[in-house]
């Protein structure tokens, strides 16, 4: 699970 | 990626394509708020600062480039295009949108996930996007009648964030670490701002009548 800091949403 | 988020991104893309179609085919931007378009350009530029630093996926990068370039192109068209700029409702589009920018900047400095330049900019862009439609809705209320393409533009723009709310609910239950309160609360506020427009849009669609917003 990627850390929540990575913003994978547009 | 889940179906709600993909549907939201596609709806968002459609809203931009509808706007570009309107400006390109009618060579007119009547009924379009330049201030909302400028706010969206700021939203995309401040949100996608990681465009060159973090590679998430081809889809993510392509969509970011499309959103940034289309929003800047639309602002350029309304400001500079020799034909389109003539139809800009300058005297109706008088919302003081820099106040929104200031308020969102202050809020982002107070409420953010981490105190770093990129995170504060990201929170700023999330807050600003929630209120970016206000100048456009005010302009539509003042001009009263809404032409089809503009109505569809605002409808798709509002619908995309509603899909994102479903996406956040889905991710909340399917991913143990997923909490994006800033996005969720801001997204709910954003969708709520469209609520009255949706209501009048649905009524006009049901009665097959022209969309009239109460002045």
UniProtKB/TrEMBL annotation, chain B:
The keyword Transmembrane applies. GO terms for cellular component: endoplasmic reticulum membrane. The chain crosses the membrane at residues 55-78, 122-141, 153-173, 179-202. The keyword RNA-binding does not apply. It is a multi-pass membrane protein. GO terms for molecular function: ER retention sequence binding. GO terms for biological process: protein retention in ER lumen; protein transport; vesicle-mediated transport. It is found in: Endoplasmic reticulum membrane. InterPro entries: ER_ret_rcpt. Keywords: Endoplasmic reticulum, ER-Golgi transport, Membrane, Protein transport, Receptor, Transmembrane, Transmembrane helix, Transport. Belongs to the ERD2 family. This is ER lumen protein-retaining receptor. It comes from Kalanchoe fedtschenkoi.
